[in-house]
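Quick entry between incubations.
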Amino acid sequence: MISKTPVLIAETEGYICYRRPVMHGVTNCYILLERVENKAAIIDPGGDAAALTEAIKELEAKPEIIINTHGHWDHIGANKALQQHFGLAIAIHKADAPMLKDSAISAARIFAGDGDGGEVKRLLKEGDIIELGALEIEVLHTPGHTPGGICLKCDKMLFTGDTLFNLSIGRTDLAGGDYKALCSSLNRLTSLADDLLVLPGHSQSSTLGYEKTHNPYLRP
Ligand SMILES: [Zn+2]
Ligand SMILES: [Zn+2]
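Done. Structure below.
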């Protein structure tokens, strides 16, 4: 059963993270809140802009930034509406930024959107740190699913977009997909700590340790 209300994913003294499934529950949008001023980052608002707006208001969050793990339509679909409503910045890897405006490469044509993913404010690259209050969100460039796919590491959380799923990995048959690149990105992820919470763009959460042991694409 798909929850219509945000699901608590992680909570510490410094932050709270919720998952709000969008696009008929298929895509995971994450709302990451720092706890000093309630500043929020919205990670992959793939659709359901009105519902996300409500959720953000109910959490009394002060959203500052949208971060897209990559430029596919099911991850950027509510960018424009949320940007306009809250005056948000949009951050995406520079290699995927063109997808915000090109429905052919964002695959928007197979969805019911206008293909406009809003106005990018910050072009991301490997090693960038996005500050949200006292929180630091580290950008890991993990190409393969798309050229500018990223994972986001924040404390014990690893937002993996469509690079790594619970027991699976992202497809590489869409525009810009590169299986070899994805394999080296996954290989890189295996060097990270086992206790990281894997928060993927679709399906259930996991831990990196579990995936290293059970995910057939990660096993040596
Ligand atoms: Zn994707
Ligand atoms: Zn996706």
